[in-house]
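Incident log, structure service

09:12 report received: a user says their structure output differs between two submissions of the same chain.
09:20 pulled the input from the user's history:
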Amino acid sequence: MFELSPNKVLKREALRLMRLTDRYRALAADITLRHQHLNANIEQKLVKALSTKNREMLLDAYAEGRKIVAEGLMQILAARGV
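09:34 re-ran on a clean worker, output below:
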């Protein structure tokens, strides 16, 4: 997705941030696998929002997915005593 951007500075920064968050994103992948039924719905909303260029729907779907991951990460970190 980032390769589609003509803005090289933003692309480079996005990729840098992704490298910095590799560990958390790996945990997030495990969390999303546990919530596949919710993720399928969120993915459908994201695709619809992108195809209709509906910014509000896109942000709502993103926030919904982010909430699932954030709650899961907090549970994992709490279980590890962090």
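09:41 both user submissions now match this output. Likely a transient worker issue. Closing.
09:42 reviewer note: The chain has four helices and no strands. The longest helix spans residues 55-79.
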